[in-house]
């Protein structure tokens, strides 16, 4: 996790000093903390970063990386996601992605499609992915709606159909954009695991901050990870 987060931070640091260079359209850094509501064992911190390169006005490549550190487990996890994006216009984009999760000696690769659009004053994104061995299918949605100039309502929903079970999470909250600088956010949600025998769920609270830079204020899409669906594992 440390190495992955450091790589992401280094990528974004370079991008922030070269944002005016041809091709670099944006980047971002973020940190999020998840805490359980009911005192259960899950919860932890996520470190993330990303950079986007515009090939031309319509096509872009972006790389996002994240490191996950649970509070109560002696392990770390990482994710790296590569996106190929097509911009229809200034409001709508779609693309494909390849995502790789790694936890100790276990790993999973997801390949999927994604899209996003501005609609009725809000932002909506969605994605659909399968694992490289077809044992896992993942779908997710995320939205943001500005209720004032600097304040937005945010929400997300993710579901993963695993081989012999499923995990899911949903959350809703609010974000505050500090005058074009960092964006602070908080949300409350619920994560669930069901394998046909065990069906457990737990509520959680997330707080975080994102710093975006460049002409496009960050990357078009974010990480696509199984670990994002079950915060803090």
Automatic annotation (TrEMBL):
It comes from the Bacteria. Keywords: Signal. InterPro entries: Porin_dom_sf (IPR023614). This is Porin. Gene3D superfamilies: Porin. Residues 1-21 form the signal peptide. The lineage of its organism: Bacteria, Pseudomonadati, Pseudomonadota, Alphaproteobacteria, Rhodobacterales.
